[in-house]
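Thread: "does anyone have the structure for this chain?"

Original post by V.I.:
We have the sequence but no experimental structure in hand. Need at least a predicted one for the grant figures.
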Amino acid sequence: MAGSVFLSAELSWDVSSWDFYWAVETLAGLVRGQDLANHLREISEYHLGILDVSQLSEDQRRDLARSAAGLPGLAREVMTDTARIARIEELAALFPPG
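Reply from O.Q.:
Generated one for you, tokens below.
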């Protein structure tokens, strides 16, 4: 099983479900907006496997991008597998700087 984050029709992050759900669950704890946090938790809880950023409001996209910037540092704190950390860094790099 795998998970995908779609930023646009041309840009996506496709990874194992392990990395996808770690990122989604971690982002749910980092974002400021409660609706966005709930949406991310639902993706994880119901194993939906897809986060389509284009379906979010502009404010939610900015919130997600700001929060994604913090993922690599958190991954380095809790992960020892450098390949997994690199995949989390790839996700963060897909978002425009906040």
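V.I.: this helps a lot. The two ends are 31 Å apart (CA to CA).
O.Q.: and The longest strand covers residues 2-6.
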